[in-house]
Amino acid sequence: MLNYIWFFLAAVFEIAGCYGFWMWLRQGKSVWWLVPAMFSLAIFAVLLTKVEAVYAGRAYAAYGGIYIVTSIAWLAVVERIRPLSSDWIGLGLCVAGATIILLGPRFTSS
């Protein structure tokens, strides 16, 4: 369960950091948006290392599912756009996939 908290926090900081770049490059906001954006991206990187996983690639793959969930939440809360029913179905599939990747059995080749 703690992994999901780390994933969620990492996703919030990654999305916030990328949003700063989005606002600067796509919305014409001040270049000063990049200062908190880069700080946020640094925090994201540190948080992602807190996940209990033997391999970074597996942690990143599982994180992808939680990132998608958090992105849709960002869409709803920050950008005030209501998610579609297809978004909810996709979110369920992503969380299931992330869980399988993170907690699934490990087979070794003989």
Index terms:
single chain; 110 residues; mainly alpha
Brief synopsis:
This protein has 110 residues and is mainly alpha-helical. Helices cover 75% and strands 0% of the residues. It has one domain (2-103).
Integer tally of domains: 1
The total count of strands amounts to: 0
Give a quick account of the main beta sheet: strands, pairing sense, barrel closure: none
Q: If you compute it from the alpha carbons, what radius of gyration comes out, rounded to the nearest whole angstrom?
A: 16 Å
Indicate the percent of residues in helices.
over 70%
The rounded distance between the terminal residues' Cα atoms is 32 Å
β-strand percent reads under 5%
Describe what this molecule looks like in 3D:
The chain crosses the membrane at residues 6-24, 31-48, 60-77, 89-107. The protein has helices spanning 2-27, 34-48, 56-77, 85-103. The chain is mainly α.
